[in-house]
UniProtKB/TrEMBL annotation:
Keywords: Hydrolase. It comes from the Bacteria. This is HAD-IA family hydrolase. InterPro entries: HAD-like_sf, HAD-SF_hydro_IA, HAD_sf. PANTHER family: ALPHA-D-GLUCOSE 1-PHOSPHATE PHOSPHATASE, FLAVIN MONONUCLEOTIDE HYDROLASE 1, CHLOROPLATIC.
Amino acid sequence: MRDSCVLLDIGGVLEITPQTGWESRWEERLGWPPGTVHERMRDVWQAGSVGHIGEQEVHEQVAARLGLDAPQVEAFMADLWTEYLGTANEDLIAYVRGLRGRCRLGILSNSFVGARERETAAYGFDALVERIVYSHEIGVGKPDPRAFEAACDALGVPAHRCLFIDDAAANVEAARAAGMQAHLFEDNAGTIARIAAHLGARSR
């Protein structure tokens, strides 16, 4: 079944990432109206998600746009990464780990510059799957069809043999349009059952 592929998202799938309210806390601390941080930083977040700027420039833009000193910038970014990384979805990770050798395994994630280093340190995803395709490294994110093409190319598998798992309906629909099989993540049990069915179908 090594000609089968399972491709997973990270945030909301392999990581449990509830909103922590960190931006609101900073706005309250600084006496700003709700939404100010997002409005001032929106284009920086977008640029970082496709690798158009590096981490140092992100820090510089946070300082300039929000008027924060160096310790405040470090605290602000630490809060960002705490929400971004969330906690490990241990049960799903354990299941995926057990698939090694049975199928091709990969990750396709809309990401932010610095994510690979932090997620490797926190969760070791580089040892969980064969290839990780991050939007900030390929310059394009889901639901752009080029993101799915890049993931298939990285794993050396045709799209129709790949099952893609994501928690965003738009990305699931885009994966199907790109020729993949796809599953909307809602819980571990349903996702594990869908992966098992995909691999079982490929074995017949």
